[in-house]
Amino acid sequence: MFALLREDVACVFQRDPAARTTWEVITTYPGVHALFWHRLAHVMWGRHWRFPARFVSFFARMFTQVDIHPGATIGRRFFIDHGCGVVIGETAEVGDDVTLYHGVTLGGVSWNAGKRHPTLCDGVVVGAGAKILGPITVGRGARVGANSVVIQDVPDSMTVVGIPGRVVLPANQRRTQHGIDLDHHLMPDPVGKAIACLLERIAHLEQQLGVTPQGEAAAAPNDCATCGDICEPVVPASRTKRITH
Fold first, then answer.
1. Using DSSP, how many helices (H) and how many strands (E) does the chain show?
2. Which entry of 7, 79, 175, 197 is 20 to 30 Å from 25 by CA?
3. Residue 165 contacts by C-beta under 8 Å, 6 or more apart in sequence?
């Protein structure tokens, strides 16, 4: 228990630049407190001391605002930054070196007994306010953007953003290639990108359907300046009734 606690405290200094001293981390970090009480409650749960385990979990939640069910399985060097509002369900499984920010939920989507909460593999980083729901697996080294809602499996080393969560970046396209990547402000916006592409294409269509001073339709470029994709040429309305993209 205390060996795990030493690892939990040591990993805080690697992931939180605000941490200054070991005494400060031990006494003022609710994520460390919640994890310590959870490890104790989990031992009780494994010995079928159900009520004492739930009471310890309830006691910890009152002081840390972190709700971890004693049946959840937590790996080594687990870090909850700020901690406020984090919820981890009974059948959730969290691997080693995982980082959660405040407001994260590892929840279920079923009232049936059995596995109903997500599994986070080693090295996963989950941004603030993200919801990971159901018995899905988030692969090793994956990142989940802030406020994302993930309801499907995430492959290893991929980045997921949006509602519902969409895979947007593999590991080789990230800014940080090694270690824990905390550059959440650099995550792309796939919905915003799609809207920008549509707006650009609409402008091209309006230009093509309009008449130039020479009396001829202006040709639209075949590539999208927003995303760089190659688009099929648009056939003028005077030649066909169907306009394709």
1. 5, 15
2. 175
3. 144, 145, 148, 149, 150, 151, 152, 154
**228-237: pLDDT as tens digits:** 555 555 444 4
Strand 149-150 and strand 131-133: the pairing is parallel
Whether 60 contacts 74, CB under 8 Å: no
Cα–Cα distance between 185 and 89 in angstroms, integer?
28
Does residue 164 contact residue 179 with C-beta atoms inside 8 Å?
A: no
> Could you report the per-residue pLDDT of 98-145, keeping only the tens digit for each?
999 988 999 988 888 888 999 999 989 998 889 999 899 998 988 898
Q: Tell me: pLDDT of 241 over 60.
A: no
Are 147 and 129 contacting, i.e. CB atoms less than 8 angstroms apart?
Answer: yes
Helix (H, G, I), strand (E, B) or coil at 12: helix
DSSP string, 120-184: E-TT-EE-TT-EEESS-EEPTT-EE-TT-EE-S-B-TTEEEETTTTEEEEEGGGSS--SS----G
Q: How confident is the model at residue 159 (pLDDT cuts 50, 70, 90)?
A: confident
Q: Which two tokens stand for residue 71?
A: 């049946």
Q: Which two tokens stand for residue 95?
A: 């691997």
Task: Indicate the SS3 state at residue 39.
Answer: helix
Predicted confidence at residue 189, as pLDDT, reads 61
